[in-house]
Design goal:
Elements (H helix, E strand, L loop, with lengths): L1 H4 L14 H15 L3 E5 L7 H16 L3 E5 L3 H7 L3 E5 L2 E6 L1 H13 L14 E4 L3 E9 L5 E2 L1 E3 L4 E9 L3 E2 L2 E8 L4 E8 L3 E2 L4 E8 L6 E14 L2 E15 L21
Parallel strand pairs: 1-2, 5-16, 8-16
Antiparallel strand pairs: 3-4, 6-7, 6-9, 9-14, 10-13, 11-12, 11-15, 15-16
Helix pairs in contact: 4-5
Length: about 270
């Protein structure tokens, strides 16, 4: 447990002198060793640095894939949508909703970000954004050059994505904004694609293609913001964490991306 929590340097320190972060690490390590069939995890995935948070996430996936029942308590709606099969929303001690993670996330955003009623005497802003459920993710897979599903990508090899979503509402020319995020939460790069058609509720959209891989070795997430412009002053946004993956390789790791440069030094006379 001490090794998993990375607290070896503090093994002789009394528990009462542990910080809240150290206690969170230790509690998670105990849970891992207990190997219970039902686990209650309260915000511990946010404990510690990015490397330890990723270690916790790996354990979460391992336990879930092994058939364990995990109850995750969190305010991170990206984590809820990417990891959970069902979600419950609590507000001021009352159960507000139980059901699909996307719908729970929508209600959470509305509770936290809903502003006051607009004043009709004031000019309208350029464009307001509201959180909404635009699509539901049915599949999200990385594939190799033969089309087989993979979890990890070697450095310099292209990143082939295959994502299938189902429209939850009518979407006129939906916009898909993708962010590649590293383990520190930094958006390394982003790109956008638009479907120049109207998608009816229940219709499916497949997003496939290749991303140039200039990433250094490390863990990454692919986030997708699904945007639907309802009219000139309003757009509906949905944030989805569609997949996580590892880029592996032995090249030196400097910065966040590896680029080719053609700069030659010359001595001036």
């Amino acid at each position: 447990m001490i090794d998993f929590a990375e607290l070896g340097d503090f093994v002789d320190l009394k528990l009462k002198n542990y910080s809240s972060g150290m206690m969170g690490r230790f509690a998670f390590a105990i849970m891992v060793q207990a190997d219970a069939d039902i686990m209650l995890i309260d915000e511990v995935l946010a404990v510690g640095d990015a490397a330890f948070a990723q270690k916790c996430m790996d354990v979460f996936h391992e336990k879930r894939d092994a058939g364990k029942t995990i109850v995750l308590v969190t305010h991170d709606m990206g984590t809820v949508q990417s990891l959970c099969h069902r979600a419950a929303l609590l507000h001021e001690g009352e159960l507000q909703y139980v059901g699909a993670p996307e719908d729970a996330a929508l209600r959470y955003y509305r509770l936290n970000f809903a502003g006051p009623e607009p004043d009709p005497r004031r000019p309208a802003p350029e464009r307001d954004a509201v959180m909404d459920v635009n699509v539901r993710v049915l599949e999200a897979t990385l594939r190799d050059e033969r089309g087989a599903a993979i979890s990890n990508v070697e450095q310099d090899l292209p990143i082939n994505v295959d994502i299938l979503v189902e429209a939850a509402r009518e979407l006129a020319e939906p916009i898909f904004v993708f962010h590649v995020v590293n383990e520190d939460g930094v958006v390394v790069f982003a790109f956008t694609c638009t479907l120049q058609r109207t998608v009816l509720p229940g219709q499916r959209v497949r997003l496939t293609g290749t991303i140039e891989n200039r990433l250094v070795a490390g863990r990454y997430y692919l986030d997708c913001w699904v945007r639907h412009d309802q009219h000139e002053t309003m757009m509906a946004l949905q944030a989805l964490r569609v997949m996580r993956f590892v880029v592996y390789g032995t090249a030196p790791r400097h910065g966040v991306v590896k680029l080719h440069a053609d700069i030659q030094p010359e001595l001036e006379a």
